[in-house]
Amino acid sequence: MIMCMNSLSVYDKNTLEFVTVAVEFCGWLERDFASDRFRFVDQATKLLPLLYLKASLIPEMPVADEDSGATGFITEETYDLLRFRIADLLGEHDSYLDTFLPDMAYSDTPIIAFISENLADMYQDLGNFAYLFRQGHEETMLQALQLCVATFRQYWGQSLLNALKALHAIRHNEDIHLQSGSEA
User: Fold this and answer.
1) What share of the chain is helix, strand, coil (3-state, %, to 5)?
2) pTM for this one?
3) pLDDT tens digits for 25-82?
4) Coil, strand, or helix at residue 172?
5) Which among 180, 177, 181, 31 is positioned nearest to 93, based on CA atoms?
6) Is the C-alpha dihedral spanning 17, 21, 23, 24 positive or negative?
7) Interatomic CA distance for residues 17 and 12, integer angstroms
8) Across the strands, what pairs with 96?
């Protein structure tokens, strides 16, 4: 009976839609967006809410065992390369003040966070998830899904929302002109 429940979780409509959006997110970040800040910010403000919605619709399931064998595919080098590409593209708009860090309650000074780091963190979790899910072994797929859902709830869901808030400000701030090809 447990195998049947696992199969339902892996092949659930909401799970498959999440997988589709997660793969699209990773593919979007992997494509070359080197010179078009406006298009990047515009697409991010559309894709991130969809990713959050699809992740939040995944059925409840037990939390993955940390020693489940779900190993990482995204290397530190890939992570850093992506983070630096995004930071370079966003320039001075990459940083924002983060108010949701637990340390903020004890701090008199603002804590600076970076959109590039948020997106690279998400890419790492989602890229590892997508790689493992594509393997097609139900047990591995389930473990990858459980781990991804756990990290969404504990970490990258908040990172997504923080980055989205900062990207929204960039996209819709009248003082920042992000027209295609222009510098702000």
Assistant:
1) 70, 5, 30
2) 0.85
3) 999 999 866 668 888 999 999 999 999 999 999 987 777 665 555 567 899 999 999 9
4) helix
5) 177
6) positive
7) 9
8) 113
Residue 9 reports pLDDT greater than 70: yes
Q: pLDDT at position 2, please?
A: 44
Residue 66 tokens read as: 């940390």
State the DSSP string of 91-130: GGGSEEEE--SGGGGG-SS-EEEEHHHHHHHHHHHHHHHH
> What confidence score (pLDDT) does residue 63 get?
74
DSSP state of 103: G
Query: 74 by DSSP, 3-state: which?
Result: coil
Backbone angles phi and psi of 174, in degrees to 5? -65, -20
Q: Which residue has the tokens 């199969």?
A: 7
Contact 166, 115 (CB under 8 A): yes
Tokens of 7: 């199969």
